[in-house]
């Protein structure tokens, strides 16, 4: 086998050493720093984007919290306004009811007064008619002409009894 | 490799100087050979691949850039999982080993080219450098305490007589197993390809059967090429882990 021919060993070892050292220098000084730089750049970019996303997320959460707080505030203030308005309306209704009741009572008493007056008037008219009727009846029946004062007195007595 | 000539499947491993006269340095032959050319091609391919694919420096990588980044991340993860953060400074070395072996194996699969990882001297030198380096790191970090590597923690003292030689042999055989594994896999794969290719010619029309087999074996060899590079690198990481963290 040519592999065990020592005459070629020196040349192989020499060129192996030269080529390996050259490749080592090329890798460590040129190729690897470039790759490392690109990979690092990418990692930085990814980290940066992640940090940005994280920041945006916190901001969005903050906005959401503010929004929810605003909603809750609005809801509670609306409830307060509603309560106030309904209390106001209840007070107004009570006041109106009271006024209406008073007015109604006044109207009732006024109407009762009017009824009483009308009744008295009617009674007075009735007395006059009864006096005339009585005078005419006595004249026709017994032919006695009674004077008006007497007749009236009799009628008043009779009506006084009746009423 | 002209057809018709009588050839051995081992001819593909012959080292041939590319220049006529052997180049000598201090009494040693350092001729630029087909093996050296394959190494040069590997270095050039790795460098061009990584530099050109990363040229766009895109935030969202394209195909080539993804490939380069995957190579980087495979080795980085291997080192992090096996060694931890202390292994960080050895990353360029581990990465160079991985890319050198991986591309060396792949370039060797190109028909007519040369596989420098199929020479045991190459893999042995690499494994020895790793072994010596790792041992030096171990002694530098733990001082003489690194010798406790050879005696399992908590074992009864009298077992040292048996355990220390065993552990010592297993430790010292690391460069051998590391180098022979890669070398043997490459040699066997390439010999198998050549032997079956010989059948294709010999069987004439029926050569279609070994040809189909050859296609499958070639695909398998690509897997082996990547797998052996991975194994070579991960074992280096494991040795490094032992040196840094002991057992």
Please describe what this structure looks like.
The complex is a heterodimer of chains A (about 160) and B (about 250). Helices cover about 90% and strands about 0% of the residues of chain A. By secondary structure, chain A is mainly α. Chain A has one domain (about 10-160). The termini of chain A are far apart. The relative contact order of chain A is 0.03. Chain B is mainly α and about 250 residues long. Chain B has helices at about 35-55, 65-80, 90-110, 120-140, 160-170, 175-200, 210-245; strands spanning about 25, 30. Chain B has a two-stranded antiparallel ribbon with strand order 1-2. The interface of A and B includes residues 4, 10, 23, 30 and 45 of A.
Brief account:
By secondary structure, chain A is mainly alpha-helical.
List keywords for this structure.
heterodimer; A: 163 residues; mainly alpha; 2 helices; B: 247 residues; globular
Would you spell out the secondary-structure blueprint of this structure?
The complex is a heterodimer of chains A (163) and B (247).
Chain A: H1 9-142, H2 148-162
Helix pairs in contact in A: 1-2
Chain B: E1 24-25, E2 28-29, H1 34-53, H2 63-82, H3 91-108, H4 120-142, H5 160-172, H6 174-202, H7 208-245
Antiparallel strand pairs in B: 1-2
């Amino acid at each position: 086998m040519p592999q065990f021919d020592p005459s070629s060993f020196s040349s192989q070892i020499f060129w192996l050493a030269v080529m390996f050292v050259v490749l080592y220098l090329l890798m460590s000084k040129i190729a690897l720093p470039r790759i490392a730089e690109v990979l690092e750049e990418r990692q930085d970019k990814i980290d940066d984007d992640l940090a940005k996303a994280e920041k945006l997320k916190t901001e969005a959460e903050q906005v959401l919290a503010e929004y929810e707080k605003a909603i809750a505030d609005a809801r509670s203030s609306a409830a307060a306004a509603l309560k106030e308005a309904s209390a106001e309306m209840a007070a107004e209704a009570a006041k109106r009811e009271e006024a209406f009741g008073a007015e109604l009572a006044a109207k009732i008493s006024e109407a009762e007064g009017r009824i009483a007056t009308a009744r008295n008037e009617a009674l007075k008219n009735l007395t006059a008619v009864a006096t005339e009727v009585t005078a005419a009846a006595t004249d026709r029946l017994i032919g006695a002409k009674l004077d008006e004062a007497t007749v009236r007195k009799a009628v008043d007595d009779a009506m006084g009894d009746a009423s | 490799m002209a057809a018709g000539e009588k050839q051995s499947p081992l001819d593909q491993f012959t080292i041939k100087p590319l220049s006529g006269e052997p180049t000598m340095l201090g009494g040693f032959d350092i001729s630029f050979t087909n093996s050296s050319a394959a190494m040069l091609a590997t270095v050039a391919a790795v460098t061009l691949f990584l530099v050109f694919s990363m040229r766009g420096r895109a935030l969202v990588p394209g195909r080539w850039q993804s490939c380069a980044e995957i190579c980087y991340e495979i080795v980085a993860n291997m080192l992090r999982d096996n060694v931890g953060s202390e292994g960080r400074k050895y990353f360029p070395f581990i990465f160079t080993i991985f890319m050198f072996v991986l591309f060396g194996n792949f370039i060797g699969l190109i028909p007519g080219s040369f596989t420098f990882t199929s020479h045991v001297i190459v893999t042995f030198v690499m494994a020895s450098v790793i072994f010596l380096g790792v041992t030096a790191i171990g002694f530098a970090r733990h001082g003489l305490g690194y010798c406790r590597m050879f005696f399992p923690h908590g074992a009864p003292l009298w077992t040292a007589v048996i355990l220390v030689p065993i552990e010592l042999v297993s430790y010292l055989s690391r460069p051998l197993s590391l180098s022979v594994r890669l070398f043997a896999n490459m040699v066997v794969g390439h010999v198998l390809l050549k032997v079956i290719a010989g059948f294709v010619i010999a069987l004439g029309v029926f050569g279609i059967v070994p040809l189909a087999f050859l296609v499958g074996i070639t695909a398998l060899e690509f897997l082996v090429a990547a797998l052996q590079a991975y194994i070579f690198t991960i074992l280096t990481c494991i040795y490094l882990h032992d040196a840094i963290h002991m057992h």
